[in-house]
Design a protein that fits this description.
This protein is of the alpha/beta class. 32% of the residues lie in helices and 25% in strands. It is globular.
């Protein structure tokens, strides 16, 4: 902290007014000031948050993997780098204000292809806790990406057993709905 002896007229008037009101501020040393301004990072909490984030990433990837053959009818799903991590971080952020946090969350996973929205799966982070809020995650199909390799080769190169590849967009939508509150729904487009 830097102290200066020069005061402008406005500051000196405020100080003299405080003194007249018998306000005597307690002396604050630099050491005391930084104790209150910059809290020490809680490394245990940071590790726990990272573990929750990794767990969510695995759940999301598992959901996409299971849905790949059952609901999406494709052989591959291409996911942009760190998309599931970004989604997990946003889910953690949205759950941080809830009474049970992430444990009270139910995530409905959907895929938007064109004008159609397909339900893929439902993820319950902790089935032992009564849900306090729901999140609806909407993945988006990337329709503007580069064309598939199939367009460059004759059809004879591919057998009929090969199914299509689904490419996800880096964008997604999260919709938060509190189950026991009158507060309106929160929609976040990312």
């Amino acid at each position: 902290m830097v102290a200066s002896s020069s005061l402008n007229i406005k500051n000196s008037a405020c100080i003299s007014e405080l003194i007249q009101q018998r306000f005597q501020p307690a002396p604050v040393t630099d050491f005391d000031y930084w104790d209150y301004v910059v809290p020490e990072p809680n490394f245990n909490e940071m590790v726990f948050e990272e573990q929750k984030c990794q767990s969510l990433v695995r759940m999301l990837e598992s959901c996409l993997s299971k849905s790949k053959q059952t609901k999406l009818c494709c052989s591959k799903v291409l996911v942009p780098e760190k998309l599931t991590r970004r989604i997990a971080q946003d889910i953690l952020r949205l759950s941080s204000t809830e009474p049970c946090g992430l444990r009270g969350c139910v995530i409905h996973v959907n895929l938007e292809t064109g004008n159609v929205c397909k339900k893929l799966d439902k993820i319950v982070y902790d089935p032992t806790v009564v849900p306090t809020f729901e999140l609806t995650l909407v993945f988006k199909q990337d329709c503007c990406s580069w064309p598939s390799f199939r367009d460059f080769f004759p059809r004879a190169c591919f057998t009929s057993g090969i199914k299509r590849t689904l490419i996800l967009s880096p964008g997604f939508r999260l919709i938060k709905k509190k189950l026991y509150s009158l507060i309106e729904t929160v929609v976040e487009e990312c």
